[in-house]
Amino acid sequence: MPEHASWLTLLLAHVRETLSHNVDAIGQSFIGKQAPTWQSFEPISASLVVVLVILGVSLAVRAKLSDPESAVVPDDKLTLRTFMEVFLGYFYDLATSVMGPERAKKYYHLIGASATFVFFANIMALIPGLPVATSSLNITLGCAAVVFILFNAYGFATNGFGYIKHLAGPVWWLAWLVGPIELISLCVRPFTLALRLMLNMAVDHLLVTIFLGLVPILLPLPVMGLGVLVVLVQTLVFALLTSIYISLATEHEHEEAH
After folding, report:
1. CA distances (Å), 218 to each of 211, 214, 224, in order?
2. Which of 135, 166, 179, 198: disulfide with 140, CB 3.0–4.6 Å?
3. DSSP letter string, 192-238
4. Chain centroid, CA 103 distance in Å
């Protein structure tokens, strides 16, 4: 994707020399093997900004819930607390519908954390001048890698060797055919998660920026409205696929046979 400037780019430019001396720590890009520059620190810094925003929101909501009496009484208008309750409640219900209440409660920390990070990172695409962490393949691939590692770990913890055995298919004499297909399907999941999210958010942010540059008044509003839809859909897709992958990995063998 084309290079773009944000306020974070301007901030990092003040320490350009220091960053340039440490670019070797990042290494070459995964695709294209391009050498890093001082601007390569921007996606990482943008992710840290998202984490700080989430921590700030968490502390603010926690402060609202610290009083037991007021915590059980819902707010009479839309506040940060009610928004997060509805947001996290929706994805908990989504996880419950995919894997059942018992497993949803056990694995919701990954699903909820993924949805929260992706949403707050995506929403920055609607604000010109803000960095968009999820428009970088390095960040989305990192998120997808965390999901990939954990749902496989959950599968091993739940089913043991049976988790590897199910990759061979339902009957042993088809293992030579089903095994490679299942293995490729498993390994391609983090890449599809990462590429789908990165491409949608990078294009969305680019379109908003272009329209704002052409006609900064009124005309970008329909594009930004479409951008809100993209943000919500991409958050939903990432959380839904994470739930499905966890559900498939932690499904017991007798449930699969049934």
Report:
1. 10, 11, 10
2. 198
3. HHHHHHHHHHHHHHHHHHHHHHH--SSTHHHHHHHHHHHHHHHHHHH
4. 20
**Angle between helix 80-99 and 101-123 (nearest 10):** 130
Give the number of residues written for the chain: 258
Burial tier of 228 (Cβ tally within 10 Å: 0-12, 13-18, 19+) = middle
13 three-class SS: helix
In this structure, the number of other CB atoms found within 10 A of the CB of residue 16 comes to 13
Q: What is the pLDDT of residues 19-57, one digit of tens each?
A: 667 666 666 665 666 666 766 778 888 899 999 999 999
Question: Among 241, 255, 228, 250, which residue's Cα sits nearest to residue 94?
Answer: 241
pLDDT tens digits for 171-191?
A: 777 777 777 888 898 899 999
Report d(CA 229, CA 204) in Å as an integer: 10
CA–CA separation, 79 and 65 (whole Å): 13
Structure tokens at 17: 């020399």
Distance CA 158, CA 251 (A): 8
pLDDT per residue as tens digits for the range 50-59: 999 999 999 9
